[in-house]
Amino acid sequence: MATAITPGRTGTLLLVxxxxxxxxxxxxxxxxxxxxxxxxxxxxxxxxxxxxxxxxKRFPLVALALALSAVGDVMLALQPAQMTFGIAAxxxxxxxxxxxxxxxxxxxxTRGLSGYAAAGVLxxxxxxxxLWLQPGMGDLRIPATIYNGVIVVMACLALMSRAPMIAVAxxxxxxxSDTLIALGLFMDYDPAWRGPAVWVTYVAAQFGLALGxxxxxxx
Length: 219
Hints:
Elements: H1 7-13, H2 15-26, H3 38-56, H4 60-77, H5 83-108, H6 113-133, H7 141-160, H8 165-187, H9 194-213
């Protein structure tokens, strides 16, 4: 008897090509060297598949956050880069992720003192980083400041919630990835390893959030 292909199983099959496409983009500009705008499409393609994965798993808010992230990827990969629109798209994605974590707190409670303490430490780090980076933000000061607040709040909610640890790790990796981006944009800190590290931590963050928030049984 043939095995039925359910939407959930079909979604799981998307994870491998999503990871492969994200890995291919890591080598864009070196081994691949795709011309514009195909490189922009490649950048977003893996995250688009993750959004489809979440949609097929029937987690529409997770799918929406990933779709907004893919829009942000495209905005930042355009020539010239549309920084304000990219920041806005990712900011909206983090708001959606924050709503998901709030819902998890409402239904499952918090991690208690340890979660609050971890969130407090992260909030303090976020404030210090923002104050340090602000002098170099220039015209992006307002959107970048708002974005910093949104992503830190999202990650703090993740730490406080009883979300699966893979999702919490994803939220923290997102903060790390964006911090590396900010160091390049606003502090002119751009060693050779920064670009690959930004992409690897970003992809790991999105996979962690996608997997963790679509399977509450994970821990």
